[in-house]
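Ticket #195: bound-state structure for S-adenosylmethionine.
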Amino acid sequence: MKPEEWSQRYREGRTGWDIGGCPPELAPFIASLPPARNVLIPGCGKGHEVAAFREAGHSVVAVDYAEGAVEAARRNLAEYADCVRLADFFDESALPPAAFDICYERTFLCAIPVKWRRDFARRVDTLLRPGGRLAGLFLYGDPEPDGPPFPLSGNERGSLLGARFTLLHSRPTGSSFKPLPEAREFWEVWQKPSA
Ligand SMILES: C[S@@+](CC[C@H](N)C(=O)[O-])C[C@H]1O[C@@H](n2cnc3c(N)ncnc32)[C@H](O)[C@@H]1O
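RESOLUTION: The complex was predicted; output attached.
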Protein backbone atom coordinates (compact mmCIF):
# COMPACT_ATOMS: atom_id res chain seq x y z
CA MET A 1 0.00 0.00 0.00
CA LYS A 2 1.12 3.53 -0.75
CA PRO A 3 1.57 6.14 2.03
CA GLU A 4 -1.62 7.94 0.93
CA GLU A 5 -3.61 4.72 1.27
CA TRP A 6 -2.30 4.17 4.80
CA SER A 7 -3.04 7.83 5.62
CA GLN A 8 -6.60 7.42 4.43
CA ARG A 9 -7.04 4.46 6.73
CA TYR A 10 -5.87 6.42 9.77
CA ARG A 11 -8.06 9.37 8.89
CA GLU A 12 -11.11 7.13 8.45
CA GLY A 13 -10.33 5.00 11.52
CA ARG A 14 -9.89 1.81 9.46
CA THR A 15 -7.02 0.55 11.61
CA GLY A 16 -8.04 -2.98 12.53
CA TRP A 17 -4.47 -3.94 13.50
CA ASP A 18 -4.34 -1.27 16.21
CA ILE A 19 -4.98 -2.73 19.66
CA GLY A 20 -5.19 0.69 21.31
CA GLY A 21 -2.15 0.12 23.50
CA CYS A 22 0.91 -2.07 23.92
CA PRO A 23 0.96 -5.85 23.61
CA PRO A 24 1.37 -7.54 27.02
CA GLU A 25 4.78 -8.97 26.04
CA LEU A 26 6.30 -5.49 25.86
CA ALA A 27 6.35 -4.54 29.57
CA PRO A 28 8.55 -7.45 30.73
CA PHE A 29 10.88 -6.86 27.80
CA ILE A 30 11.26 -3.17 28.66
CA ALA A 31 11.79 -4.09 32.32
CA SER A 32 14.70 -6.34 31.25
CA LEU A 33 16.58 -3.61 29.39
CA PRO A 34 19.63 -1.76 30.66
CA PRO A 35 18.96 1.95 31.18
CA ALA A 36 18.88 4.63 28.48
CA ARG A 37 18.70 2.51 25.34
CA ASN A 38 18.15 4.02 21.88
CA VAL A 39 14.99 2.54 20.42
CA LEU A 40 13.77 2.62 16.82
CA ILE A 41 10.15 1.90 15.91
CA PRO A 42 9.62 1.54 12.14
CA GLY A 43 6.09 1.85 10.74
CA CYS A 44 4.95 3.08 14.13
CA GLY A 45 1.30 3.81 13.32
CA LYS A 46 -0.28 5.48 16.36
CA GLY A 47 2.90 4.77 18.29
CA HIS A 48 1.50 3.41 21.56
CA GLU A 49 4.83 1.77 22.37
CA VAL A 50 6.69 5.10 22.18
CA ALA A 51 5.24 6.17 25.53
CA ALA A 52 6.08 2.82 27.15
CA PHE A 53 9.76 3.04 26.16
CA ARG A 54 9.99 6.75 27.03
CA GLU A 55 8.38 6.31 30.46
CA ALA A 56 11.07 3.71 31.20
CA GLY A 57 13.79 6.26 30.39
CA HIS A 58 14.74 5.22 26.85
CA SER A 59 15.19 7.45 23.79
CA VAL A 60 12.85 6.69 20.92
CA VAL A 61 12.74 7.48 17.22
CA ALA A 62 9.46 6.30 15.69
CA VAL A 63 8.99 6.60 11.94
CA ASP A 64 6.05 6.23 9.62
CA TYR A 65 5.78 7.31 6.00
CA ALA A 66 2.03 8.03 6.12
CA GLU A 67 1.12 11.56 7.14
CA GLY A 68 -2.16 10.27 8.59
CA ALA A 69 -0.24 7.90 10.86
CA VAL A 70 2.16 10.59 12.02
CA GLU A 71 -0.74 12.96 12.78
CA ALA A 72 -2.53 10.21 14.73
CA ALA A 73 0.64 9.26 16.63
CA ARG A 74 1.44 12.85 17.59
CA ARG A 75 -2.13 13.36 18.84
CA ASN A 76 -1.98 10.08 20.73
CA LEU A 77 1.41 10.70 22.30
CA ALA A 78 1.07 14.32 23.40
CA GLU A 79 4.27 14.96 25.43
CA TYR A 80 6.22 12.37 23.40
CA ALA A 81 4.99 13.63 20.02
CA ASP A 82 8.48 14.84 19.11
CA CYS A 83 9.67 11.21 18.94
CA VAL A 84 7.62 10.65 15.79
CA ARG A 85 9.07 11.43 12.35
CA LEU A 86 7.55 11.35 8.90
CA ALA A 87 10.06 9.18 7.04
CA ASP A 88 10.37 6.14 4.83
CA PHE A 89 12.15 3.41 6.75
CA PHE A 90 13.90 2.36 3.54
CA ASP A 91 15.29 5.83 2.80
CA GLU A 92 19.01 5.47 3.52
CA SER A 93 19.31 9.14 4.49
CA ALA A 94 16.43 9.12 7.00
CA LEU A 95 18.12 7.37 9.93
CA PRO A 96 21.71 7.16 11.20
CA PRO A 97 23.46 3.78 10.83
CA ALA A 98 24.53 1.73 13.88
CA ALA A 99 22.66 4.12 16.18
CA PHE A 100 20.04 1.90 17.81
CA ASP A 101 20.15 -0.71 20.58
CA ILE A 102 16.62 -1.92 19.93
CA CYS A 103 14.44 -2.06 16.84
CA TYR A 104 10.86 -2.78 17.87
CA GLU A 105 8.60 -4.58 15.41
CA ARG A 106 4.83 -4.91 15.37
CA THR A 107 2.78 -5.39 12.19
CA PHE A 108 5.28 -3.47 10.07
CA LEU A 109 7.17 -6.38 8.53
CA CYS A 110 3.91 -8.13 7.63
CA ALA A 111 2.52 -4.88 6.17
CA ILE A 112 5.26 -4.22 3.62
CA PRO A 113 5.36 -5.98 0.24
CA VAL A 114 7.02 -9.39 0.42
CA LYS A 115 9.70 -8.31 -2.08
CA TRP A 116 10.95 -5.70 0.45
CA ARG A 117 11.58 -8.20 3.23
CA ARG A 118 15.25 -8.73 2.46
CA ASP A 119 15.67 -4.94 2.51
CA PHE A 120 13.94 -4.86 5.90
CA ALA A 121 16.45 -7.33 7.33
CA ARG A 122 19.36 -5.47 5.74
CA ARG A 123 18.08 -2.08 7.00
CA VAL A 124 17.60 -3.34 10.54
CA ASP A 125 21.09 -4.82 10.44
CA THR A 126 22.50 -1.47 9.28
CA LEU A 127 20.64 0.58 11.86
CA LEU A 128 21.37 -1.59 14.92
CA ARG A 129 24.59 -1.31 16.84
CA PRO A 130 26.65 -4.51 17.16
CA GLY A 131 24.84 -6.62 19.77
CA GLY A 132 21.62 -4.66 19.23
CA ARG A 133 18.30 -6.45 19.18
CA LEU A 134 15.29 -6.69 16.90
CA ALA A 135 12.37 -7.46 19.21
CA GLY A 136 8.63 -7.63 18.95
CA LEU A 137 5.76 -9.46 17.37
CA PHE A 138 6.15 -11.44 14.16
CA LEU A 139 3.26 -12.93 12.19
CA TYR A 140 3.88 -16.39 10.73
CA GLY A 141 1.54 -18.33 8.48
CA ASP A 142 0.67 -19.42 4.97
CA PRO A 143 1.39 -17.05 2.07
CA GLU A 144 -1.35 -14.45 1.73
CA PRO A 145 -1.48 -12.92 -1.76
CA ASP A 146 -4.23 -10.47 -0.81
CA GLY A 147 -2.50 -8.87 2.17
CA PRO A 148 -1.51 -6.86 4.01
CA PRO A 149 -0.98 -8.60 6.27
CA PHE A 150 1.56 -10.87 4.54
CA PRO A 151 2.60 -13.46 7.15
CA LEU A 152 6.16 -14.78 7.12
CA SER A 153 6.66 -18.43 6.34
CA GLY A 154 8.33 -20.58 8.99
CA ASN A 155 11.31 -20.96 6.61
CA GLU A 156 11.86 -17.20 6.62
CA ARG A 157 12.73 -17.36 10.30
CA GLY A 158 15.99 -18.88 9.20
CA SER A 159 16.51 -17.52 5.70
CA LEU A 160 15.50 -13.91 6.27
CA LEU A 161 16.16 -13.08 9.91
CA GLY A 162 18.38 -16.01 10.90
CA ALA A 163 20.85 -15.14 8.16
CA ARG A 164 21.77 -11.92 10.01
CA PHE A 165 20.62 -12.30 13.61
CA THR A 166 20.63 -14.91 16.37
CA LEU A 167 17.24 -15.90 17.72
CA LEU A 168 17.34 -15.42 21.50
CA HIS A 169 13.70 -15.97 22.21
CA SER A 170 10.52 -17.09 20.42
CA ARG A 171 7.14 -17.90 21.86
CA PRO A 172 3.58 -17.74 20.59
CA THR A 173 1.58 -14.84 21.96
CA GLY A 174 -1.92 -14.91 23.34
CA SER A 175 -2.49 -13.14 20.00
CA SER A 176 -3.15 -9.45 20.27
CA PHE A 177 -3.75 -9.53 16.52
CA LYS A 178 -5.49 -12.37 14.70
CA PRO A 179 -6.10 -11.12 11.18
CA LEU A 180 -5.99 -14.49 9.41
CA PRO A 181 -7.31 -17.81 10.74
CA GLU A 182 -4.11 -19.73 9.98
CA ALA A 183 -1.58 -17.11 11.01
CA ARG A 184 0.10 -17.12 14.40
CA GLU A 185 1.85 -14.27 16.15
CA PHE A 186 5.12 -14.85 18.03
CA TRP A 187 7.04 -12.65 20.45
CA GLU A 188 10.65 -12.88 19.27
CA VAL A 189 13.98 -11.34 20.17
CA TRP A 190 16.79 -11.44 17.59
CA GLN A 191 20.31 -10.22 18.22
CA LYS A 192 22.85 -8.76 15.83
CA PRO A 193 26.31 -10.23 16.40
CA SER A 194 28.61 -8.18 18.63
CA ALA A 195 31.54 -6.59 16.84
C1 LIG B 1 -0.24 -2.32 9.87
S1 LIG B 1 0.37 -0.71 10.26
C2 LIG B 1 1.18 -1.01 11.82
C3 LIG B 1 1.31 0.21 12.67
C4 LIG B 1 1.89 -0.05 14.07
N1 LIG B 1 3.19 -0.71 14.01
C5 LIG B 1 0.95 -0.84 14.92
O1 LIG B 1 1.31 -1.95 15.35
O2 LIG B 1 -0.17 -0.37 15.16
C6 LIG B 1 1.78 -0.56 9.16
C7 LIG B 1 2.38 0.84 9.21
O3 LIG B 1 3.59 0.85 8.48
C8 LIG B 1 3.68 2.08 7.79
N2 LIG B 1 4.62 1.89 6.69
C9 LIG B 1 4.52 1.06 5.63
N3 LIG B 1 5.61 1.15 4.84
C10 LIG B 1 6.44 2.04 5.43
C11 LIG B 1 7.73 2.54 5.12
N4 LIG B 1 8.38 2.14 4.02
N5 LIG B 1 8.31 3.42 5.97
C12 LIG B 1 7.65 3.83 7.09
N6 LIG B 1 6.42 3.40 7.43
C13 LIG B 1 5.81 2.52 6.62
C14 LIG B 1 2.25 2.37 7.37
O4 LIG B 1 2.06 3.73 7.06
C15 LIG B 1 1.49 1.91 8.60
O5 LIG B 1 1.31 2.95 9.53
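RESOLUTION NOTES: The longest helix spans residues 67-77.
TICKET STATUS: resolved
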